[in-house]
């Protein structure tokens, strides 16, 4: 088990309160929650008939898609750097 101090913070995401516990700063946790809230609201604006579960799943899919694309870009840049050092 880690000795890092855990922060506990209650955040509002899409009108619901969630208690988040983590080792990141409270401001970081708030920022992440704000981004999730914004993504869910963006999806709702574009698809007003969707229910909460579908909005949440689409927000997760969009976020993981962005994450995977960034990971691919990092790997590409690492490869380019390795070739330059070559």
From TrEMBL:
Protein origin, superkingdom: Bacteria
One example of a Gene Ontology biological process annotation: FtsZ-dependent cytokinesis
Main location per the UniProt record: cytoplasm
One annotated Gene Ontology cellular component of this protein: cell septum
Subcellular location: Cytoplasm
Pfam families in alphabetical order: ZapA (PF05164)
UniProt keyword annotations, A-Z: Cell cycle, Cell division, Cytoplasm, Septation
Transmembrane segments: none
Gene3D superfamilies: 6.10.250.790
Function as written in the Swiss-Prot or TrEMBL entry: Activator of cell division through the inhibition of FtsZ GTPase activity, therefore promoting FtsZ assembly into bundles of protofilaments necessary for the formation of the division Z ring. It is recruited early at mid-cell but it is not essential for cell division.
Subunit note: Homodimer. Interacts with FtsZ.
NCBIfam families, sorted: PRK14126.1
Protein name per UniProt: Cell division protein ZapA
Record lineage: Bacteria, Bacillati, Bacillota, Bacilli, Bacillales
């Amino acid at each position: 088990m880690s000795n890092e101090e855990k922060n506990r913070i209650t955040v509002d995401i899409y009108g619901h309160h969630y208690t988040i516990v983590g080792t990141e700063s409270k401001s970081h946790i708030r920022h992440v929650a704000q981004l999730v809230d914004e993504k869910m609201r963006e999806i709702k604006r574009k698809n007003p008939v969707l229910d909460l579960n579908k909005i949440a799943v689409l927000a997760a899919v969009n976020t993981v898609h962005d994450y995977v694309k960034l990971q691919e870009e990092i790997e590409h840049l690492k490869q380019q750097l390795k070739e330059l050092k070559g």
